[in-house]
Automatic annotation (TrEMBL):
Subcellular location: Membrane
Protein name: Zinc metalloprotease
Cofactor: Zn(2+)
Keywords associated with the record: Hydrolase, Membrane, Metal-binding, Metalloprotease, Protease, Transmembrane, Transmembrane helix, Zinc
Membrane spanning residue stretches: 15-36, 111-134, 383-416, 428-447
Oxidoreductase listed as a keyword: no
Residues annotated as domain Peptidase M50: 17-443
SUPFAM superfamilies per UniProt: PDZ domain-like
KW Hydrolase (keyword) present: yes
Membrane topology designation: Multi-pass membrane protein
A Pfam family it matches: Peptidase_M50
Domain of life: Bacteria
């Protein structure tokens, strides 16, 4: 019962993170449309967080606009008079155009209104990254400080030819300066250059590596970590054979298990797996003083302690990190650079999803995947704002796709009108809106079905 409660607590926390994050982004996106529409004297009939078919949870009319919260948490909308949108208000479109309507405005004004939401999301991401850098700085682990090489935490990395202790030199011929860059570089890369026993080697990554990751472990997978000594970082309180009860302390260093030497954490599991259900002797060093203690190994091959986290390893000087601090003014250009880097990373991912050879579409996820990105052990403002900034970039990019019903579809039709001088008919826009909504609903269904049922994985 306790384990079930903990799991539901984690699910609830991550769901709270996601709803809060998306609510902020939706409100800001719609505010971008709202403020530009008001700027050009368009009447805005509704401003809603979430959708409100049949009824609203909250609503209040102020001036010409009804502000409200719907019950269907799939986004939000502003209803601008005289615009063909998700409201599909055909009766209004049958009436003669009015001066306050969207359709009565010049094409350049309508274009700005359509780009208002995307612009707001990009500006918000830039602002968030700037403030994150100003508040917390930018902490990275230099590859030069990963002195013991990598720890392979995914079997696929073993399958392609990497081993524990390898020292990564470059991906696609580009040297890796910080370990934090490595996982993303590998996912998007084709070649890894590394050093093993002092000899430089190169391996080629399979083009469908993402597909293999999804098939093996789902959409989230830690490929590798820095290799670190066997130093206790924390204890598993749910383990009835907890090594803490046997006398083990945080920061104790285990150097042997039943006289079998262990230097690195990746060497522990193979030894414990041969001792399941048995009592073992741990050779431990605490404050430079060696001693031994006895403990039990459970049937899963665990004794109830966790590896050090990054902060603990940094404090011991084992994985010394660098933190670059930014002043208030310096944080803004740095925020622009970071926004550009994150946007480029997402565009590269999107290209892989569109390429059937990579199988990356199988890793496409919905709300469950999005929620799983957030921490599940407590509220972390730095993590929350970092993830929200990245989601803001994704929302901006996705809304610019030239799909009817998205901002990008409206932008495309408006640009064609500006170039050709011919405005699409309302009937054409209605049909395009319906087609776009069907496409978006199908994509949403696939992504969330992939989350829960693995629709894209095949058999």
């Amino acid at each position: 019962m306790t384990l079930l409660a903990i799991n539901w607590s984690q699910v609830g926390l991550q769901a709270g993170y996601l709803i809060f994050s998306l609510s902020i982004l939706v409100i800001l996106h719609e505010f971008g449309h709202f403020i530009t529409a008001k700027w050009f004297k368009c009447r805005v009939e509704k401003f809603y967080l979430f959708f409100d078919p049949w009824f609203s949870l909250v609503k209040k009319k102020i001036g010409d606009t009804v502000y409200g919260i719907g019950w269907l948490p799939l986004g939000g909308y502003v209803k601008i008079s005289g615009m063909v949108d998700e409201s599909m208000d055909k009766e209004q479109m049958k009436q003669p155009p009015q001066p306050w309507e969207f359709r009565s405005k010049p094409a350049w004004q309508r274009l700005i209104i359509m780009l208002g939401g995307v612009t707001m999301n990009v500006l918000f991401a830039f602002f968030l990254y700037a403030m994150i850098l100003y508040k917390w700085g930018d902490t990275k682990l230099p590859m030069a400080n990963v002195k013991d090489g990598i720890w392979i935490t995914d079997s696929l990395m073993h399958d392609i030819g990497l081993k524990n202790g390898d020292k990564i030199i470059a991906v696609n011929g580009d040297s890796i300066q910080y370990f934090n860059e490595l996982p993303a570089k590998i996912i998007l890369g084709t070649q890894i250059t590394f050093s093993r026993d002092g000899k430089e080697q190169t391996i080629t990554l399979p083009p469908n590596m993402i597909e293999q990751l999804v098939e093996k472990k789902g959409k989230r997978s830690t490929l590798l970590m820095p290799r670190i000594p066997v130093i206790v970082g924390a204890f598993d309180s749910s383990n009835s054979l907890n090594a803490q009860k046997a006398g083990l302390h945080v920061y104790d260093r285990i150097v042997a298990i039943d006289s079998i030497p262990v230097q690195f954490f990746d060497e522990v599991a193979p030894v414990l797996n041969t001792k399941k259900g048995d009592s073992i002797t741990l050779s431990v060093v605490r404050n430079q003083r060696p001693f031994q203690l006895r403990t039990l190994v459970d049937t899963a091959g665990k004794i109830g302690f966790y590896v050090m986290n990054e902060e603990q390893a940094d404090s011991l000087g084992i994985l010394k990190q660098e933190t670059k601090k930014y002043g208030f003014l310096a944080s803004f250009p740095a925020g622009v650079v970071k926004t550009g880097e994150k946007l480029n990373f997402y565009v590269q991912q999107f290209k892989m999803i569109l390429n059937p050879q990579t199988g990356a579409y199988k890793g496409l996820g919905g709300f469950k995947t999005m929620a799983s990105i957030f921490p599940n052990t407590g509220w972390d403002w730095e993590a929350f704002w970092n993830i929200t900034a990245f989601f803001s970039i994704i929302l901006a990019f996705m809304n610019l796709l030239p799909i009817p019903a998205l901002d990008g579809g409206h932008v495309l039709f408006t640009l064609i009108e500006m170039i050709s001088g011919r405005k699409p008919s309302d009937k054409f826009l209605e049909y395009a809106q319906i087609a776009g909504m069907v496409i978006l609903f199908a994509l949403m269904l696939f992504a969330n079905g992939n989350d829960w049922f693995g629709w894209g994985k095949g058999h």
